[in-house]
Amino acid sequence: MRLDSVCYRLAYRSGRPAWDSAEPRPELAELARSRPPGRALDLGCGTGTDTLYLASRGWDATGLDFAPRAIATARSRAAAARSAATFVLGDVTRLGSAGVGGDFDLVTDIGCYHGVPAGRRDAYAAGVAAVTRPGGDLYLAGIADPPASWRLVGARGLDAGDLRRRFGADFDLVEERKAGPVGRAGRFALYHLVRR
After folding, report:
1. Measured between alpha carbons, how far is 125 from 137 in angstroms, rounded to an integer?
2. Would you state the CATH architecture of domain 3-195?
């Protein structure tokens, strides 16, 4: 098991991690309001807040995370809300092995890719390209410059150069937004890519 996987699993076992919010990210809420519903995949969904939000807006929404406790919580929340959202336990760098396939209109990743180790990022990009329909949207948001402690588990952050290298064969980078600092974790960034 990879060190990053162990760290995330332990974070969910010890309670509610600092990144786990009961409200969807404002960027996601803006996105959901501006598009007609379709099929959505939420990578690194945690306890399902964003996936459940998309489902409540009429999206056929699937969430994926490799932390068993997070997925169990997400499934319980979906059942309590009588939501049609589905949740899959699996690795975002191995979508095929997790049984995730199809033509998604929207793929979101809010706070996952920035923590994917460099050696797994090409597999992540290839998997996302394989499941996103032509013209589909990929929204990546996360920490641009993670602290040194994150780098110990392989986290490299999120930047336009890396995204162009890894996704450029299949996606066009159409928007980049930077936000202010997120506590001690660094600056937050949002990228919108469109599948060719």
Report:
1. 13
2. 3-Layer(aba) Sandwich (3.40)
Q: What is the pLDDT of residue 14?
A: 58
Please name the amino acid found at residue 52.
Answer: L
> Smallest Cα–Cα separation from 63: which of 51, 55, 53, 72?
51
Confidence category of residue 141, pLDDT binned at 50, 70, 90? very high
What residue type is assigned to position 28 of the chain? L
**Whether 68 contacts 9, CB under 8 Å:** yes
**Could you tell me the residue ranges of all domains in the chain?**
3-195
Between CA 45 and CA 52, with CA 48 as vertex, the angle to 5 degrees is: 120
CA atoms within 13 A on the CB side of 43: 30
For 81-115, write each residue's pLDDT tens digit.
Answer: 999 999 999 999 999 999 999 899 999 999 899 98
Angstrom distance (rounded) from CA 42 to CA 32: 13
Compute the distance between CA of residue 115 and CA of residue 142 in angstroms, rounded to an integer.
9
Q: Sign of the CA dihedral 21, 62, 134, 93? A: positive
Q: What DSSP string runs through 3-20?
A: HHHHHHHHHHHTS--TT-
Query: Across the chain, how many H-helices and E-strands are there?
Result: 7, 7
d(CA 163, CA 172): 10
